[in-house]
Amino acid sequence: MRTALDFTSGTIYLRPQPIAFEDSVVIDAQTLLSTRRSVPIPALRAPAPEGAELDDILVEAMRVPDHGKLAPWRFILFRGDGARKMGQKLADVAERREGTLGEGRRAYEETRFTRAPLVVGVVSTAKPHFKIPEWEQVLSVGAATMNLIHAAHARGYGANWITEWVAYDDDAKAIMGIKADEKVAGFVYIGTVSERPSDRPRPAITDHVVEAGAA
Ligand SMILES: Cc1cc2nc3c(=O)[nH]c(=O)nc-3n(C[C@H](O)[C@H](O)[C@H](O)COP(=O)(O)O)c2cc1C
User: Which residues form the Nitroreductase domain (predicted)?
Assistant: First the structure.
């Protein structure tokens, strides 16, 4: 039976009135939305979702509004040996750019995709289309990324949406198998939370919401 993380109290718990679905117990949607926050990468430990659970998370990630049904995204899984090798190649790119890297910097680059047990690269394949504005496709990719994060949190995992230089570097993108006309929406670091993060101040609705016609 799976558990959910309660970020308000910091305890692993089973919901007193869980939403039962087949053999799973999942956090209720309102609690998920009101308590999710990014977990710093060093606090993301093994295990990460894998197998059927990861498949479910990816399917839920793609369950987003998508004008024209273009599915303008794809996912790259960085884990294990593949993630290690990718880090070494990216460190080489950084070294070609900047000259010999210091030990700490080299190690940072080499371990870029092994800092968490799973990193999901979300790639936008949005492009000009005769009917569907590219902007709307990009929004759908962002929605898929957020769904991915929520789907992970719903199962008790922590997640963090990161880009950093490798998302914007053409050579790094090529090494990761990302085409020149594709964009990185983000790298979502996922793992089991070892330390509960404190929250940050959240935007107030008074600063961001207006009533139409009230002015
Ligand atoms: C597209 C995108 C890219 C981001 N890239 C980074 C990044 O490279 N480094 C970073 O520290 N935070 C990055 N963030 C911010 C974190 O994902 C996160 O939102 C932030 O730490 C605040 O945490 P919260 O999710 O709890 O509000 C990015 C966010 C978005 C939406």
Answer: 36-191
